Amino acid sequence: MYAFLALPPFNQTENQMNQTVLDTESDFFTIEEVAQKLRVSTKTVYKQVLGGALSFTRVGRQYRISFDDYDQYRKGPGLKR
Known about the structure:
globular; 4 helices; single chain; alpha+beta
């Protein structure tokens, strides 16, 4: 029962491989990043996530909010401008 990692093609440079990882990670925000962007506390963001107002993805024990979900929430009717 061994787990094998998927390796990138050999023709990719290390910089290209790192950029692929960075692009994937930049599509998601942490709770702390969303709180900073909305200028609210992390507790407020947790309440929105757990209340269902803000969609999320779990990564291990952490919550991640996709850019699209954040943008939809930010433009939604529930957020005062």
